[in-house]
Amino acid sequence: MLDRYIRFSLPGSSLWTNGRFGLGILTAAGENTKQYHNLNKHVLSGNGNNRIDSKIDSNDTVNNIPVYCPGLTDGSLGDMLYFHSVRNDPGLIVDIVQDIRAMNGEAVKATPRKTGMIILGGGIPKHHICNANMMRNGADYAVFINTAQEFDGSDSGARPDEAVSWGKIRSSAKTVKVHCDATIAFPLLVAKTFASRMKPLH
User: Fold this and answer.
1) Which of 4, 13, 93, 119 has its CA 20 to 30 A from that of 189?
2) pTM flag (> 0.85)
3) What's the pLDDT at 46?
């Protein structure tokens, strides 16, 4: 869906009249959302997360890594949930309790007993991951990678030490916050850590 680079300063009205949506320095063609909507007609008819998982063509599905979406109703998927419920009243009812039980359960029942968090960006996902670890009296390791600052009191900008005060990270934990664009920093970290131990796929 993302197919064109633009300037941050490009007027939104110009994109709108040309049938494009702005996403930072990227744009998406309006007609591409039709394919997205058609996909979600099928997703909404059953177990949403399992169906979304099956559409992600990556090692996540190969390694059976669960995919959670704590901000399910925020954005295009939320739009589809709304449209579906209006056209099929009462329509689909999404139960998010199953997801939060599964996500928090992963932290609480972690084996071995230590947990670590690598959080790219901030917002709702960062908060959910930290909260899950609060249920087990804190994570043992934490790496935050984002460009948010703490002066505005945002959760995204909060340092790991703020999470320690909530019991989301243990006071004995090894933590670091990297002030950098995650799309730059994370591939470099992976290349020097996880990827160096991976066998090449042939």
Assistant:
1) 4
2) no
3) 44
